[in-house]
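dumping this here before i forget
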Amino acid sequence: MPIKDNGQGISPQYKDKIFDRYFRIPGTAKTGTGLGLSISKEFIEAQGGRIAVESDLGKGSTFSVELNAVV
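structure:
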């Protein structure tokens, strides 16, 4: 289930850090605590799933979420 945006994208140097608690990309104008993506990752992984990001700086980001189907 991909989620795309057309924002500024994520610099490669921060791509591995965006799921860390309290991390905010330096210089961004957005406010927040830096918890949203880390909480999402913890919740998804607790369900046996996975979250990943692909990003092109200046073009936007695509987040992919995979969850295990319960049958």
